[in-house]
Design goal:
seven-stranded parallel β-sheet, globular, single chain, alpha+beta, 10 helices
C-alpha cells in the first residue's frame, strides 16, 4: 500500500484520471485452490488507494494478460502436461473450469467497487488481445462474457482490447454482447486508419486506445528499448486534437516497475529463438522503474495541461517526490550453501522416476535437479539433452562442467568420466505471447550419454527447488568448494530510514538475488541489458539486512562480493 500511494499519486499529478491494472492469475492462485489476496497481492487495497488519490480504475482480469509476465499470467497448472495438453484460452472444459474457479474468487471481491455501487471501477476487460491468439474461439469469449456478467452484474461495462489489423479485429471483439471494442497502437501508428478500421467492427461507442506505448519491452541479450518523448507526445497530441472527435488514451506502460521473483516471462521470435525478459520492467515509461518522474512524464503532462487543463492540479504535483536513494556499499559474502547441499532446499524428492517436467511435478518456478547414477563412464563422452527448457547446468560427480541452452543449435556438451550425472534445470520464464504458450519446463526430450539414452530409464532422482524460502538453508563458512550452483550470503547495515537501492551484481555471471528472503529477481549482466537489480526501500529494515545470491554459472575469480549502489543500470537505449 505504501508503494501504491506513491505511484498512484504520481499518476494523478501527471494529469492521469484512470489507472488501468492487469490482474495476474498465477500471482493470486499460484497452485490449484490456493488463493492469495493479502500483502503484496491485496488487489482491493490497491483499488482503495487509487480511489483515495482521485483515480478511476480499469480492471484487466485476464485470465490471460500477456504483460511480459510468466505464461501471460496463466498458472502452470492450466497447461496440463505434454502428454495431456490443456487447450488454454478455448472452450476446453478443463480450462474453463479452472477459470471459473478463479473468477469465482476474484470477481466477487471487485463487484462492491464497481462505479454503479459508488466505487472507482469504470471498466472491466474480457480476456486480453484475444485476436492475437491462434484459437479464435467465439464460444470461449462468449462464455467468458456471460460468466463475468453473471458475477459482476448486468451494468458492468465490459470491453476488449486488440491490435487493429483485420485478424485481430476479426477474432478479438465479442459481438452481440454489449462489449466495447477498443484498439492498441503506439506512436509509430496513425490513429485515423486504426479507428476507421475499428469502426467497421463497431459502428458506435467511444474511441479508445487501450494500449498506447510510450516505451517498449526488453529481452536478455538484446538492446534496451526506448522511445523519445517527442515521438510519444506527437501522436498523443494528434489524438487529443483529432477531427474524429474525443479519443480516450490509456498509456501502456505509464509505470512498469519490476517483475520481482521469477515472474518475468519470455517471448518467441519468428525464427523460433527463445527471448527471456529481464527482471526490470522499466519499459522507458513516464515513471521509471523506481517510480521517479522522468522527462517523458513532464512532456506528457504538458500536453494534457494544454488540451485537457481540467485534469491538471499543480498543487498535487508539488506533493509528489522522487524516492530517496542510497548506496549501502559492499556486501561481502561470508556464508555459503554449496551445490553439494542444495538438495536441503528441495520441497519435493522423487527416486526411481522418469524425467518429469516442472508442471508434472506441480512446480511453478525456479529450478529442478535431475540426477542419474545408472551409468558410469570411464572416458570423456558426449552428453546431449534434447529440448532443454530452458538452461541446463551440468555437473559430473558434483563438479560443474558447463551449460546447455535451448537456443543452441546443438544441445551437446563434452563431459569427463563420472559416476553421478547431475542436471540442474532453470526455468527462465514461460513464453507469454503468441501461439507457443505451451512452454513446458524441464527436459522435454531425450538425455543421451555417448549415444546411450538415459531419459527412458527409471534411474533418475529429482529434487524440486522453487527457492521460495532460502532462509531454511543451513549455510556454513565459505570454503573452496563454493563453486557454481552455490548460494552465498552476506549482510549490510541500513542506518536511519531505509532508501531505495540497487544490487550491482557484476562480477557475478548469472543467477538470482534475495534480500531479506525476498526474491529480487534474475541477473545476467554479461548479456545485459540490465546490470543492476532494484531493491525497494519497503523491503529493507533499519539495522542488519541479509543478501543472498544464487550463482549458477561462474564464480568471480576476485573477492566474493556485490555492491549496493544508488542508481539503476538497465542498459543504454539501443545498445
Amino acid at each position: 500500500a505504501v508503494v501504491s500511494t506513491q505511484s498512484t499519486g504520481k499518476l494523478r499529478s501527471g494529469g492521469i484520471n484512470v489507472v488501468s491494472t492487469y490482474v495476474a492469475w498465477n500471482f493470486h492462485e499460484p497452485h490449484p485452490g490456493q488463493f492469495n489476496f493479502e500483502g503484496d497481492a491485496d488487489l482491493v487495497e490497491f483499488i482503495k488507494v487509487a480511489e483515495s488519490v482521485g483515480l478511476y480504475v480499469n480492471i484487466r482480469p485476464g485470465p490471460y494478460i500477456c504483460a511480459e509476465w510468466d505464461l501471460g499470467g496463466l498458472p502452470y497448472f492450466a497447461l496440463g502436461s505434454p502428454k495431456d495438453k490443456v487447450y488454454m484460452r478455448t472452450n476446453d472444459q478443463r480450462f474453463t473450469k479452472l477459470v471459473q474457479n478463479y473468477f469465482d474468487e476474484l470477481l466477487p471481491r471487485l463487484r462492491p467497487h464497481l462505479y454503479e455501487f459508488g466505487g472507482p471501477i469504470i471498466m472491466v476487460q474480457v480476456e486480453n488481445e484475444y485476436g492475437s491468439y491462434k484459437a479464435c474461439d467465439y464460444e470461449y469469449t462468449s462464455w467468458m462474457t456471460d460468466m463475468m456478467r453473471k458475477l459482476l452484474g448486468p451494468n458492468a461495462v465490459f470491453y476488449t482490447a486488440d491490435g487493429w489489423d483485420m485478424h485481430h479485429l476479426t477474432c478479438g471483439p465479442v459481438h452481440n454482447k454489449d462489449v466495447l471494442t477498443t484498439v492498441n497502437f503506439g506512436p509509430n501508428s496513425d490513429h485515423k486508419p486504426a479507428f476507421t478500421r475499428m469502426r467497421n467492427f463497431q459502428g458506435h461507442g467511444p474511441l479508445v486506445n487501450s494500449e498506447y506505448y510510450p516505451g517498449w519491452l526488453d529481452h536478455w541479450g538484446e538492446p534496451h528499448q526506448c522511445k523519445s518523448s517527442e515521438l510519444v507526445t506527437a501522436e498523443f497530441k494528434n489524438m487529443l486534437t483529432s477531427e474524429m472527435g474525443k479519443i480516450y488514451v490509456n498509456f501502456y506502460m505509464y509505470f512498469g516497475g519490476t517483475n520481482f521473483g521469477f515472474y518475468a516471462g519470455a517471448n518467441r521470435a519468428q525464427d523460433s529463438k527463445y527471448q527471456p525478459d529481464p527482471t526490470s520492467y522499466d519499459y522507458d515509461a513516464p515513471l521509471s522503474e523506481c517510480g521517479d518522474l522522468t522527462d517523458k512524464y513532464h512532456a506528457i503532462r504538458r500536453e494534457i495541461k494544454a488540451h485537457l487543463p481540467h485534469l491538471i492540479n499543480d498543487d498535487i504535483l508539488s506533493q509528489v517526490k522522487n524516492s530517496v536513494k542510497k548506496s549501502y556499499g559492499k556486501v561481502v559474502f561470508t556464508k555459503a550453501l554449496p551445490f553439494t547441499d542444495i538438495k536441503t532446499l528441495a520441497t519435493k524428492v522423487l527416486h526411481s522416476a522418469p524425467l518429469h517436467t516442472f508442471e508434472e511435478l506441480q512446480q511453478d518456478f525456479g529450478f529442478v535437479l535431475y540426477e542419474n547414477v545408472g551409468i558410469v563412464t570411464e572416458q570423456t563422452t558426449e552428453l546431449e539433452v534434447l529440448e532443454p527448457r530452458d538452461m541446463v547446468y551440468v555437473y559430473a560427480d558434483n563438479v560443474y562442467i558447463g551449460k546447455i541452452y535451448r537456443n543452441q543449435e546443438e544441445t551437446k556438451l563434452s563431459v569427463p568420466p563420472f559416476k553421478t550425472l547431475s542436471l540442474l534445470v532453470e526455468n527462465m520464464g514461460r513464453i507469454g505471447y503468441g501461439p507457443h504458450l505451451h512452454d513446458y519446463k524441464g527436459i522435454l526430450g531425450s538425455v543421451k550419454v555417448g549415444g546411450t539414452i538415459l531419459s527412458k530409464t527409471p534411474d533418475w532422482s529429482i529434487w524440486t527447488l522453487p527457492l521460495n524460502n532460502t532462509a531454511t538453508g543451513k549455510f556454513k563458512d565459505i570454503s573452496a568448494n563454493s563453486g557454481p550452483g552455490s548460494l552465498l550470503r552476506g549482510t549490510f547495515t541500513v542506518r536511519g530510514t531505509p532508501a531505495d537501492t540497487w544490487v550491482k551484481v557484476s562480477p557475478f555471471t548469472k543467477g538470482v538475488v534475495f534480500v531479506n528472503n525476498k526474491n529480487i529477481g534474475r541477473y545476467w549482466p554479461k548479456v545485459g541489458p540490465q546490470k543492476h537489480l532494484y531493491v525497494p526501500s519497503v523491503w529493507l529494515r533499519e539495522g542488519v539486512n541479509q543478501l543472498t545470491i544464487f550463482e549458477v554459472e561462474e564464480m568471480p575469480q576476485t573477492e566474493l562480493l556485490v555492491e549496493l549502489v544508488d542508481h539503476p543500470d538497465i542498459g543504454v537505449c539501443g545498445t
